[in-house]
Amino acid sequence: DNSPTTLKRNDHIKIIMDKIISGEELRPIPLRQGRPYKELSNIDGILTELSLTAGKDYTMKANQGSTSVLPSQIVTFHQAKDDVLSQKLFPVDARGVLKEKNAKEFYFQNLEHENLVLVKKDMDPRLEANDYVTGNAILMNDEGDYALDNIKTINFRADKFYVNISQPYEKCPPTEKFDFCDHEILLGGRYVLQTSKFADSAEIKSGIAKLNAHNTVTLALIPNVMNDDEALKELGFVAPFFLKYEDLPIKSYEIITSFIDCIERLQDQRLNLAIFVEDFVTLANIIDSAFKNSAKTMFGHTETALKTIQRLMLLPKADKNGAHTTLFTTQDQTDLLDALYVSNVYKICKKI
């Protein structure tokens, strides 16, 4: 606004909202000499919520010229009502990765349904941020909010047998051999499969079943999933993280980062893991869309996309005591047109 001191508050709001609705890029006007400006005490909260609504980064950090950082999801739950909780209404299966909400509560995006689920920290003192939890959730008020009612598993161990440990991998070169789809691989390595989709190959389904039987937890990160994609759901992944075709880029980016955070937490638990990541190029494009205000200076992608892909590619490793994390991904001919994919995925994976 070129006249910041002569207009009323409502006039300022109308000017800014008209620009946002029209899709115009908002750029801060350089500070000029004059009266010191006043800053609202809740300006950061307003800018964060505005960023989530508009799908652009309007936070103060962006205006100061620092690296664009997408604001965390603003999560709110209405007050729980004891009379509603006691009825245990509309129970649903729930699974997801715990995120910190405040000093007394976690929450997670239910990967089985669309709803968010509130988790009280005093429900189980063993719970930590980035734990993978399964259980049942029930309605907790008249506004449709859900709360976790019981816990079945924590980090793929039955609730009553779970022990909270934190012993990061002691990295070493992979040595344990494994027969996957008639190819000898090393558990702890990186492999690219010559297929555009995991669901297109019956051999991959049998390979997943074999890994599950080998005391290895199979997890999947797959974008553009349609609701009627039954073949994908039947592959047998223990923990699929599906990015739905209709999801906004911001929501998909939250799931991608939750997936990575969860893997790193599971590695601290010394679990054996097999990660199936489909279509790295689409994942990078989704992140670019979530950070649309950032310059695409890294192989034609945003810096956030590059860093996220690198975090995924750094997950595979082997542990001196026998634990391992192995990554499998896909390769389509069109993927080779993407410089980020070629340099940071294709060239550091063994081809199957």
Helix/strand layout:
Elements lengths: L8 H14 L20 H12 L5 H4 L18 H6 L4 E6 L1 E2 L4 E5 L6 E5 L11 E8 L6 E9 L2 E2 L12 E2 L4 E4 L2 E4 L3 E4 L8 H12 L3 E9 L4 H4 L5 E6 L4 H20 L4 E5 L2 H11 L12 H11 L3 E3 L4 E7 L8 H6 L5 E2 L1
Parallel strand pairs: 4-6, 11-16, 11-17, 12-13, 12-14, 14-16
Antiparallel strand pairs: 1-5, 2-3, 3-4, 5-6, 6-7, 8-15, 9-10, 15-16
Helix pairs in contact: 7-8, 8-9
Q: Give the C-alpha Rg.
A: 23 Å
Query: How much of the polypeptide forms β-strand, as a percent range?
Result: 15-25%
Poorly predicted regions: 62-69
Largest sheet entry: 8 strands, mixed
The assembly state of the depicted protein chains is single chain
Helix content: 25-40%
Features:
352 residues; alpha/beta; 8-stranded mixed sheet; 7-stranded mixed sheet; 17 strands
Question: Could you characterize the architecture of this molecule?
Answer:
The structure is a single chain. The protein has helices spanning 9-22, 43-54, 60-63, 82-87, 202-213, 230-233, 249-268, 280-290, 303-313, 339-344; strands at 92-97, 99-100, 105-109, 116-120, 132-139, 146-154, 157-158, 171-172, 177-180, 183-186, 190-193, 217-225, 239-244, 273-277, 317-319, 324-330, 350-351. It is α/β, with parallel strands linked by helices. Strands 8, 11, 12, 13, 14, 15, 16 and 17 form an eight-stranded mixed beta sheet that branches. A hairpin with a 2-residue loop joins strand 6 (146-154) and strand 7 (157-158). Helix 7 (249-268) packs across helix 8 and helix 8 (280-290) runs antiparallel to helix 9 (303-313). The relative contact order is 0.12. Mean pLDDT is 88; it is low at 62-69.
